[in-house]
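Q: How would the structure tokens look for this protein?
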Amino acid sequence: MTSLTDLAVSILSTADALEKCRLTRAVAADWFAGHITGRGTTLPPDRPARPARPQLLAPKEMPKRAYGGERGRIGLVHALAHIELNAIDLAWDIVCRFPHEDMPKGFVDDWVQVAVDEAEHFEMLQRLLEQLGASYGDLPAHDGLWQAAEKTADDLMARLVVVPMTLEARGLDTTPGTMEKLTRNGDAMTPPVLDVIYHDEIRHVAAGVRWFRHLAAKRGLDGRAEYVRLMGERFPAGLKPPFNHPARAEAEFPQDWYEALAR
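A: Here is the predicted structure in token form.
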């Protein structure tokens, strides 16, 4: 019987973004229905398959984004769609990247659900791009998110620290302000999509914190000290305030952990 990790790798190896979303929903539905009984130990590729477009650039090579007007909205939504496509692959990657950790089934359940959420986010953003007369791939995109994955491929705790507990948590800090600004500028289409993403990301950050604590306890480590150590090692630039303390609290992210790293 085909295992979950076999199916996860097939999704990671799918280049077409909408097909990746379709397969994500189908595999998740079978997993939650109990039709896939084996987790498996198939390891993921170093990099997921990607469509021919967009052109991927280093973050410092990205052209300056336009702000304001329809062009600015397209640039923002395209950048967010690229993040969500990467997030689908990050969720499936974490399902099969670390079999030696022997994580509980609840861990797998959480990240399969994250993959479904990210697929829905990508599809919402792609529909929004189409309403704006554009499509994913029309603009260049940066490869920073997957570079963060590559730098944490050796340690599940480091992956949790950098991806859900830092990069996704940053979305909790910035998204409310973005929604407010768009609304002030008369955009009635984008803020509702961002609101869905925002509330789902609280759950994603919570999953990161929960399983980081689980691993710290399993390894006999102090959670806060290990978080600070890994941040210094894997994310030395530190964190940019202000922080959305209420959203982070909802995700059960201790304030004294991350505030100490504000730059």
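The chain has a mean pLDDT of 94.

Residues 69-97 form the longest helix (29 residues).

Upvote if useful.
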